[in-house]
């Protein structure tokens, strides 16, 4: 028996990194996973895993989300993972950068939750897990102004949903990772003016001495998606190797 047997889980940003590891972990625990992403080629690789269905989806596109909702009859767990890491201070953040980041990191969750929450309410049961970050209201980080602001908003959104619907069988929590070794992180390192120094800078803040892995974050997703965490809602769960201590 898997820890997630019988559960239908819809998730965004499943094509790579934390999303991919989480989709695979969900499926191995017996869930029926509807994995979405805008990266169709990488997303299709997940079809090799039993229990995973894939759908190409832009989570900033309301029409696409509503179309998918017509195809999904029931949903037990909604995982909002899609996000974008923007760099710079507020003086380096143009309005277009602010709008893009808030659209991907916050508005997408608003659209997904508003669309799929009614299906959960109809069943008087549901579980929402949002991706935030330790760089948020938990901890400030250099040159992460709009990113940190957006992830703080995710924590606020999470607590709001949890408070408003706790009496109707809905749970809502968020996960706050630190520095995780993902394709996104490697792209930021290699895309910097001095990749070797960028790697040293990232490693210097790892109090546990290494980056986290996508699989370690996926374990936390599985726990929060399972009935083992049934008494937990409205909280942010930090997985950062001690960075925020």
TrEMBL record:
One of its GO terms (cellular component) is cytosol. It is found in: Cytoplasm. It holds the Pfam family adh_short_C2. The keyword Zinc does not apply. One of its GO terms (biological process) is siderophore biosynthetic process. PROSITE patterns: ADH_SHORT. Homotetramer. This is Dehydrogenase/reductase SDR family member 6. It comes from Podarcis muralis (Wall lizard).
